[in-house]
Write a structure and sequence with these properties.
With about 110 residues, this protein is an all-alpha fold. Helix content is about 55%, strand content about 0%. The protein starts with 6 loop residues before the first helix and ends with a helix. Keywords: Cell projection, Cilium.
């Protein structure tokens, strides 16, 4: 029934986009990125992963804002390979010239085997 109280409001709430969930929803990705960075620092990623590949440390919002997708993708792959290796699995470090689909497929395959 279209005139039933509450029905229309429930339907509208289910169709809301991320920006309409609340004032803080638009900043949730920034909070997640800061949490990720804290966890990477606990694992000493700067000394272990970045120095080995001559890369600079991540900013607090590196993956939260799409600035340079190619660079961000390579950084993600480098960190994923390092984390997989740190977990005790041999994993070859991807190169910038590698096929992105193949790299992601290898990362996902390795993660599924965990």
């Amino acid at each position: 029934e279209e005139g039933a109280p509450g029905r229309r409001g429930e339907r509208e709430r289910n169709e809301e986009g991320p920006a309409e969930r609340g004032p803080g929803a638009a900043f949730h990705m920034f909070v997640l990125m800061e949490d990720l960075l804290d966890k990477l620092k606990l694992l000493s990623y700067e000394e272990e992963a970045l120095r080995r590949h001559n890369m600079r440390p991540l900013s607090r919002h590196y993956f939260a804002l799409p600035t340079n997708p190619g660079e961000q993708f390579f950084m993600f792959c480098t960190l994923a390979a390092w984390l997989i290796s740190t977990a005790g699995r041999p994993f070859e470090q991807p190169q910038e010239s590698d096929d992105p689909n193949a790299v992601i497929s290898n990362v996902l395959s390795e993660l599924r085997s965990f």
